[in-house]
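The record is passed on directly below:
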Amino acid sequence: MSISIALAGLIVGFVVGMTGMGGGALMTPVLILVFGVSAPAAVSSDLVASVIMRPVGAAVHLRRGTVQGGLVLWLSIGSVPMAFVGVLLIKVLAHGPQVQNIVELALGAALLVSAGAMVLKALINLRQRARGEHLKEADNGRVPVRRVPTLLIGALGGLVVGMTSVGSGSLIIACLLFLYPRLKASQLVGTDLVQAMPLVASAALGHLIFGDVQFALTTALVIGSVPGVFLGALVSSHAPPRLVRRALAMVLTASGLKLVGVPALALGIVLVAVLIVGPLVWSLVRRADGFASWARDRQAEAHGLGGDGGAAAPQAASGG
């Protein structure tokens, strides 16, 4: 079982390093749904393992200069105290079997919100490109920090992470995509990995004090995830991982539906429908936006040719 968990940690670590997402969003559901670990133990052990895993990927991005220090600061101001508060809320509001149910429901809801945010952002980006409104990506220089919204994102993410271990990557990075659309994918991933260090450390401390950490489980996760996140970060610093994010959105949806209590048969039907219908719908959306963009280009060219032709005609007439 330890070898299997270490292998799962290797795969999840690679996804985290490459996308900045998927630590708790993938590992915690895998521990619960595949390995039968209790929800409180899965959340606590995964957070403690993340304290060791996250700095490995963060170091790669710090060395390559893809970290926005101002964003890290204001995210951490909001997230660090609220992560500890999230742990306390679980401890105060739930007792015994209630802990398992509340954590699973909160975790499932967080996963579904994260998946929905990823899909919505991808749709917005597609529409912006089709309309010629897509903002040029920022270079590796500093971006102006919107302090209050950034702090609030950190606070929300910290609260969710403290309660469910999900959000340090998937939820926060989705919010940053909306707030800072000019950031490169590598900058988003690097910034998120660095801000996640104090956030996860605060949540892990709370779970060490009040939670249900299983150190054998944590050790297996660390053994697998550390090399995985290092390799993923190396890949991420060179190329935006679009395909992995699409697969991650599907995994988040499946895990979220399962954790909120959707029956296995209904879950299977939904996933099959999404796998078949989803690509078709996305293709139609891309074609519609692509046609609109093509029509605007042709119209612009027609206006340009008309202007040249109008200028050329008088010259021809005068020459004749």
